[in-house]
Amino acid sequence: MKQLLRAAIFGIILPALPALAQPLPEGLRSARFLPGWTDQNGGRVAALELVLEPGWKTYWRSPGDAGLPPEFDWQGSNMGDVVFHWPAPEVFLSDGMRTLGYHDRLVLPFTIAPRDAQKPVGLSAHISFGLCEKVCVPASIDLVADAAGTARDPQIEAAMKLVPALSTQKPACEIGEIEDGMTVTLSLPEPGADVAIEHSADPKIWVSAPEISADGTEATADFVTPEGKPFALDPDAVVLTVLGKDGAAEYRGCTTG
Q1: What is the pLDDT of residues 137-182, one digit of tens each?
Q2: Using CA atoms, how far apart are residues 36 and 44, in angstroms rounded to an integer?
Q3: Rounded alpha-carbon distances, angstroms, from residue 257 to 176, 232, 234, 241
Q4: Whole-number Cα distances in Å, 228 to 43, 179, 202, 214, 224
Q5: Continuous H helices in the chain
Q6: For the purposes of burial, counting CB atoms within 10 Å of the CB of 215, is it exposed (0-12), middle (13-18) or buried (19 or more)?
Q7: Residues of the chain with pLDDT under 50
């Protein structure tokens, strides 16, 4: 299965790479937190910035057939819930595999709710992620942000404009059983567009690359649990991201019947 191939690609190179104080991982030109600002609710708006070497890429929250999404071990102060604002990814096709991510530069905004609204949020983290050129490698860095500024950062605002628009619609879908899980066929709001399909509730559920129908109106993906058997798949947990020519849109949930 594709998840086994993904594990094989990365499993041979698991040792952690040096933190930012050491030489940067191969393929990474620079990494930093954009310190951001404090919003009207007391939340801190900031971003991770990764600048890549030419020809290298890094990954979206759901990387596809191979790749490692960014993972954050937060070590700051007064940090509550963190909400990421993922810019729409690109689709990469290489050696028969389909992955989703970013080339050249990633600015990944996020908002941190303070535990105590009367105190500032201190921002630091250990971050793990994947980098890929011809060879894919896991990378890790340690970052500490400067204090939040008083003005909004146009770089962060520009990245937030690339976040897929959240639709209130739920596309039609058909859900059925397969030997090792479930399969979902979704009607596409924009026929012919690239899409990503995810499961919102359980990160252990592997979702295959979507297969697009010949007329471009439907996308089908398999949902497989570690147990490798059919399960009760909630239609509201199906997330469809449409990467359209005029912008991206996200659809949470689908309607059966």
Answers
A1: 899 999 999 999 999 999 999 999 999 999 999 999 999 999 999 9
A2: 7
A3: 12, 16, 13, 21
A4: 41, 8, 14, 29, 6
A5: 2-11, 154-160
A6: exposed
A7: 1-20
**The pair of three-digit structure tokens given for residue 57, joined into one six-digit string:** 């890429």
pLDDT at residue number 176: 97
Note the pLDDT of residue 203: 86
Instruction: Return d(Cα 203, Cα 180) in angstroms, integer.
Output: 17
Helix (H, G, I), strand (E, B), or coil: what is residue 222? strand
pLDDT of residue 66: 82
Task: Answer whether 6's CB lies under 8 Å from 68's CB.
Answer: no
Q: Which two tokens stand for residue 38?
A: 């404090």
Q: Tell me the chain's radius of gyration from C-alpha atoms.
A: 19
Q: What is the pTM assigned to this prediction? A: 0.87
Which amino acid is present at 94? S
* Cα(171)–Cα(71) distance, integer angstroms: 30
| Burial class of residue 150 (count of CB atoms within 10 Å of its CB; 0-12, 13-18, 19+) | exposed
- pLDDT > 90: what percent of the chain? 79
Domains and CATH numbers, the chain: 2-160 (2.60.40.1250), 165-252 (2.60.40)
The residue among 24, 34, 131 whose CA lies nearest residue 85 is 34
Query: Which strands, in side-by-side order, build the sheet including 194-199?
Result: 165-166, 247-252, 238-244, 194-199
